[in-house]
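dude i think i finally got it to work??
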Amino acid sequence: MSTQLPETESQEAEPDAETQPSKGDERRAERRRRAAERERERQAEEAERAKEAEDTVQLKVFRYDPEVPEKEKPRFDDFYVPFEKGMTVLDALIYARDTYDSSLTFRHSCRQAICGSDALFVNGRQRLGCKTQLSDLDEPVRVEPLPHQEVVKDLVVDMEHFYDQMEAVEPYFQTSSLPDSELDEQRQSRENREKIKMSTRCIWCGACMSSCNIAAGDNQYLGPAAINKAYRFAMDEREGEDIKQQRLEIIEQEHGVWRCQTQFSCTEVCPKDIPLTEHIQELKREAVKSNLKFW
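look at this
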């Protein structure tokens, strides 16, 4: 699976003959150069010590920075991280960033598999960095940004399109009828809660969308995450049949549920074990039933 890089236009800046660096600028530039050289030497020494340690893990991390000329060409950097029991891929990346290269860029937040911000492509599979144990992976551990999404820098991808697809299904509770009294609860049966329970676990990580070959070839396809979110509300008995019908009309469009080819790739990579393919198929059945007329 390939990593998509943004298209850029190269422009050569014409040198300004009238602009000459001052002596002070030259001295400051030299100090920065020497400091950068000392930092590189320190990092090299740290890397050598890590290699010589008895128990280390080798990371091969994708690197790309469109704002730095010498880093515009994608590459992989090797990091040797001292292994500790219970260490995750995210732990290793944080160690590599804090110890070897502070410019290494990736997203993370809660570190408890709830925020969904650290979805990565690790050893050829979409995974959450904070949930993936290094001890479960073969070395070298190859860490890349999510495929089929534009890379912003290193392991960070642009999630704007994913969020747009999620918003397209109106991912919020709506109802056509409210209790008579403001003090009355809008009750949900236990059976209905059990039915939609798994669909509520989505953390918007984008792993399923990245694994979907249909989404990779059809930029307008809603995708498994958005359709699962539609399922969560369409199957909630508290919204009512009229609102459910509106949701079905959204997801049964040309680029909705009918584009799914039941490859199960989204279900396989979901870090919250949501049966995404099953939910998509059930929405297909609901869409068919809503269009059947007997007269």
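Residues 88 and 136 are 10 Å apart (CA to CA).
im so relieved honestly
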